Amino acid sequence: xxxxxDGLIFIVDDDASVxxxxxxxxxxxxxxxxHFGSAEAFEQFLDQGPLPEQPLCLLLDVRMPGTSGLVLxxxxxxxxxxxxMPVIFLTGHADVPTAVDAVKRGAFDFCEKPFSDNALVDRIxxxxxxxxxxxxxxxxxxxxxERIAELxxxxxxxxxxxxxxxxNKLIADQLAISVRTVEVHRAxxxxxxxxxxxVELANRLRELG
Length: 209
Known about the structure:
transcription regulation, alpha/beta, single chain, Rossmann fold, elongated, Arc Repressor Mutant, subunit A
C-alpha cells in the first residue's frame, strides 16, 4: 500500500523507545521519518540548510531535558516554519492544557500518550496535506515574484495603475505617455504575468501578498 502523500515526518523525543515505536508505525504505513533525541539535535539539523521541498510534519514531545518542546516550538514560530512543517505535540495527560495552548498559538494538533496508532496517523496525514498546500502557495508566490522581477520599471508602473482600476487614458495621463504605449505595456504585463484580465492580475498579486 502506498502512502496518501509522499511526505517526511520528523520525530523529536528524548525517549528512544518512543522514537523507535513511532518510526516503526510510520514505516508500516509507508511513511518516511527521521528522528532526533533532543530539541538541540533537531535545531542543529535545521541549521544545516533549508527544509526539504516536500510535505513535512513534526511530532514533538512537550517535555524533554534541556530545551523543551515548547521552547523549540516558539523558535520554529520565529523561523516561520509552521506552515511548511505543521507541529503535532506528543503529550502526557498533565501537559494537555499546555498542548491546547500551543494549538491556539499555531501548533497543528496534539496527541495524548498513550495514543491510538490510527488516530495519530490520521492527524499526521492531515498535517502533511496542510504542508502540501503551504508548499503550493510558496511555489506560487515564488513564481509570481520571479515574473514580477522580469517586468521593466515602466511595466511595473503600468501594472500598479491597471490593478487600481484606471483605464488606459488615465494611465497614459499619469505616466505622461501615449495611450498606445500603455496598451503595449499592458499587453506585455499580462503576458509576463500569465493573466488575461486586470481582475485576474489583481487576484494573482493578492495571492503574492
